[in-house]
């Protein structure tokens, strides 16, 4: 779709890396939810493609904060989007790791999950 500049990937976890790669191949800017991939080979393939595309990537807290501050200066204050009446940002974090109850994860059984 030529009239689409960017996409937000908010599909099932195991699809994030694949959809990211497809969007980058289509020449779109991409924002992808975490977790990004369930297997490292998917994550590495997407990272390689995104890095080659020269898109920015968010990173550690300080890098992400700097990117947000730069975006505020470069985009919101530039007037590119007209008069901005509101901007809202949310940073969701689940630390340490993805699961808050690491002792429960090893007890999960495939036959008990959907």
Structure description:
The protein is mainly alpha-helical. The protein is 35% helix and 7% strand. The protein has a two-stranded parallel ribbon. α1 packs parallel to α2 (40-53). The longest helix has 16 residues, at 61-76. 7% of the residues are buried.
What's a quick, concise take on this entry?
The protein is mainly alpha-helical and 114 residues long. Helix content is 35%, strand content 7%.
Helix/strand layout:
Blueprint: E1 6-9, H1 16-25, E2 29-32, H2 40-53, H3 61-76
Parallel strand pairs: 1-2
Give descriptors for this structure.
single chain, 114 residues
Q: What is the rounded distance between the termini?
A: 34 Å
**How does the overall form come out from the CA principal axes?**
extended
In helices, the fraction of residues equals: 25-40%
Strand elements, count: 2
Which band does the percent of strand residues land in? 5-15%
């Amino acid at each position: 779709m030529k009239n689409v500049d960017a996409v937000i990937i908010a599909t099932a976890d195991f699809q994030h890396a694949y959809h990211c790669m497809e969007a980058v191949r289509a020449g779109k800017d991409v924002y992808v939810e975490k977790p990004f991939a369930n297997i490292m080979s998917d994550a590495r393939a997407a990272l390689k493609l995104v890095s080659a595309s020269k898109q920015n990537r968010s990173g550690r807290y300080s890098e992400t904060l700097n990117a947000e501050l730069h975006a505020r200066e470069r985009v919101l204050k530039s007037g590119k989007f007209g008069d901005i009446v509101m901007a809202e940002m949310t940073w969701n974090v689940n630390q340490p790791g993805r699961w808050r109850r690491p002792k429960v994860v090893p007890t999960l059984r495939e036959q008990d999950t959907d």
